[in-house]
């Protein structure tokens, strides 16, 4: 069942997809962190 996933994970394509996922996650977290303080201020006013 997981043999295809394991083969992809150890290939250069798997490394690329993992790197791409990591970059997307960092970008989303940074955007979320930049909007969170503004939302908290609006809630408490």
Automatic annotation (TrEMBL):
Matching Pfam families: DDE_Tnp_1_3
InterPro entries associated with the record: Tnp_DDE_dom (IPR025668)
Domain of life, source organism: Bacteria
All residue ranges annotated as the Transposase DDE domain in the record: 2-23
Protein name as catalogued: Transposase DDE domain-containing protein
């Amino acid at each position: 069942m997981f043999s295809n996933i394991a083969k992809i994970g150890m290939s250069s394509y798997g490394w690329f997809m993992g790197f791409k996922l990591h970059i997307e996650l960092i970008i989303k977290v940074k955007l979320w962190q930049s909007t969170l303080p503004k939302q908290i201020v609006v809630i408490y006013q």
